[in-house]
Amino acid sequence: MSDNTPGTQASGGSRLRCNECGSEAIVTTAGGSSLTCCGVPLEITFAGS
Ligand SMILES: [Zn+2]
Asked: Residue 36: which of 48, 49, 19 has the closest Cα?
């Protein structure tokens, strides 16, 4: 598995938040894709394992 993917590095169980609209999301599948909302990368507020 790759843990150093560009963009939002979200592993399973990670919690993400959009600084623009305040929406929160929980990652259920580790993918390494860049997650965005409102055109900005989501910020990881809780790093899953
Ligand atoms: Zn947003």
From this structure: 19
Within 10 angstroms of residue 34's Cβ, the number of other Cβ atoms is 13
Q: Each residue of 9-42: pLDDT tens digit?
A: 667 888 999 999 999 988 887 665 667 899 998 8
Distance 49 CA to ligand 1 centre (A): 24
- pTM score: 0.64
For the domain that residue 10 is a member of, what is the CATH number? 2.60.40.730
Range of the domain at 46: 1-49
